[in-house]
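Quick one before lunch.
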Amino acid sequence: MGQTTRKIQVRDLAIGGGAPVSVQSMCATHTQDIDATVRQAELLRKAGADLVRIAVDNPKDVQALAQVRKQTKARLVVDLQENFKLAEIVAPHVDKIRYNPGHLHHLDKHRSIEEKIAWVVAIARQNGCAIRIGVNCGSVAPDFLERYKGDHVKAIVESAAWHCGLLDDLKFTNYVVSLKDSDPSKVVTCNKEFSKRRPDVPIHLGVTEAGLPPDGIIKTRIAFEQLIPFGIGDTMRVSLTVPFENKDEEIKAGRQILEDIKNKRFVSVPDFGKGLNIISCPSCSRVENGDFVKLATDVKQMTAYAKEHKLTIAVMGCRVNGPGETDDADLGLWCGPSTVTLKRKSETLGTYGYMEVLAVLRQRLDELINQPSQHL
Ligand code: SF4
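Model of the iron/sulfur cluster complex:
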């Protein structure tokens, strides 16, 4: 598996070049709760996580990260999210940093993307960090969306390939690429296209916002089974909406998928995803109300009556990414500290208490089902 890619190094972990496919997960605790984050990192490591991601949004999170680093043996990775400038203070405490090409334009608008990447790469090099270029369907770089209008897959693949070129020019080769989407078939297409373009670059696989188990695991399997047996994919994450104390389910699911693929035990679910599709994020330190996972579970149960209808409902855990990540859903919910905002595509329908939003969702779902097209 993955023999054609080059081998990269994340501390003592090899990714690519024929190394076993590694499995990753992410802490869903509040990063500044150092004890809880250490416990979570260790839970994941002991379950077999080769790499553990920690969310960092601000300098206080970085101070906590530095403490967590001292108390866990897990290899650590941080996502720079919208703030690439955190790289400088984050890199001394981690083994890998991830940047999203779609978030680089937010800060320092006077600096070119090339300059920003040269700066991030210099920091990664000084600190012995690997890099993940992480392209996400929900936040593709605006210039690539503009250039490949209407062809989202092309925009994702070209953005990733262009960034590989930047790192190559800087003679930095210790990187992987991810091309994630919540739709398994798009994950397959993007990764196949990318691996044709850059067969040398190790790939991190993932279906983003796959949702609650078992559906989230099935969606992920559908994508991975079409990639890993063909040598595409060197490391992976299974993103599941589960309570934070059960986060090790992501690792167990990932290991099981790898074991099954090795033994040629494939799931065949031809009708899966043809009807109601519920996507939900795996949660992270940005979740401000612990009822998010329960809400996602309740939404799944309440909407079971509509399972034949070809509609997408998105449930997102925070007010940072929630508003954007629900834009494409027929009905979307994003969770704030004490309220949930309900949307239809990009239109906000209202903001409700956690206890009352389900009834309103049901009403809105019925309206969509009873429309003439019926989404069947
Ligand atoms: S939507 Fe928010 S809470 Fe959910 S994983 Fe993304 S950043 Fe974290």
